[in-house]
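WP5 quarterly update. Target: YtxH domain-containing protein. Source organism: Flagellimonas profundi. Length: 109 aa.
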Amino acid sequence: MSNNTGNVLTALLTGAAVGAGIGILYAPDKGKKTRKKIKKSAVKAKDDIAQSLTHAKEEFSKSADAKKEEFEEKLEDTLSNMSYKADDILVALENKLEDLREKNAQLQK
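Structure tokens (predicted):
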């Protein structure tokens, strides 16, 4: 879940909670009943937000794990390619060294 999606979800839940609270305040009920409804709405909003945060954390964790795994794979590929290139360089240097030894041997004769 992207950060923007989490922000939108939080804003929607907050708006729903505020809207429900305002609706309850304007309802023609006695004070005790109204307070009970407000408390019930607040508890539900809190639970909804807690559930959304838990879901967002799980999604973030999954995303982070996937990115970590992708990074490790790319790092492994890069190291492997570097190893092959290092082997190629060593072979080329060994060939050059052998050529130089042969030229040196010919010059020594």
